[in-house]
Every structure is written in C-alpha cells, then in structure tokens.
Amino acid sequence: MAEKNVVVRSINTDGAMRCVDIFQRPDGTFGFDEYRRDAEDGRGWFAVGFHAQRIFATQADALAAARAVVRWLPSDA
User: Fold this and answer.
1) Cα-Cα-Cα-Cα dihedral of 53, 58, 59, 62, to 10°?
2) DSSP string covering 4-59, please?
3) pTM passes above 0.70
C-alpha cells in the first residue's frame, strides 16, 4: 500500500464551505491546499487552490505560505 499525506491541521471558514489543509508527506516535507464544498453538492471537498505540489521544510513554513496566498485565512490561524 502506498503511503499517503497526513493532514496535520485543517482551518475552516465560519460556514465550513472553504478550508485549508496543512499536510505532511511520507518524506517528511509539508504542503498545503485550499478546498471548497457546495451545500447543494454532496460529493465533498474540491481543491481550488492547486498549491499541493509546493514543498516546505516545516509545518510553520507551509502555514505562512498559505496565509500569503489564501485571502480569507486569518493571520492568527
């Protein structure tokens, strides 16, 4: 079985219609992506940021990069 990324932090908007996941890869590096879901669509979350390929050495670095590009993400998240 292939190893998978593990979400180490998920930050949602108040209405839980958007989120940013910070994840750790099997090689120990970190990344993030932004997702959305629509109430009328029961299929779940969809990537909208397309940042998952970016690589960071630490969780803090990934979060800082997410804050720089995801406009709704609070600076104290």
Assistant:
1) -40
2) --EEEEEEE-TTSSEEEEEEE-TTS-EEEEEEE--TT-TT--EE-S--TT--BSSH
3) yes
